[in-house]
Amino acid sequence: MNQLIVNTKNLNFSYNKTKQDIENLELKIPKGSIYGFLGPNGSGKSTTIRLLLGLLKQSSGTVVFFGEIFNRKTRLKILDRVGALIENPSLYDHLDAIDNLRIAANYRQNIANSRINEVLEIVKLTQAKNKKIKEYSLGMKQRLGLAISLLSNPELIILDEPTNGLDPKGIIEMRTLIKDLNKKYGTTIFISSHLLSEIERTCTHVGIIRNGKMLYQDTVARLKESKGTNVKFDIEVDKSIEALAVLKNLKVKNISLLDDFLQIELKNKEEITEVIDVLRAEKINIYQVSIKNNLEELFLSLTEN
Amino acid sequence: MTSLSYYISSIKNELIKLKRTFAFWLTIISALLFPILFFIAYSLKHKTNTPEIGINPWEKFMTVQIENSIPFFIPMFIVLITSLIMQVEHKSLGLKHLFALPIPKWSIYFGKLTIVIFAIITTYVYYYIAILFTGALLGLIHPDLGFFNFQPEHLKFVKILFTSFIASLGIIGIQFWLSFRFKNFIVPLGFGMFLAIIGIIISQAPQSIYFPYSFSVLSVSLGDQMPLTFGTSSVVLFSIICFLITSIFGYIQIKKMNIK
Question: How many CA atoms does the CB half-sphere of A190 hold within 13 Å?
Answer without folding.
Answer: 31
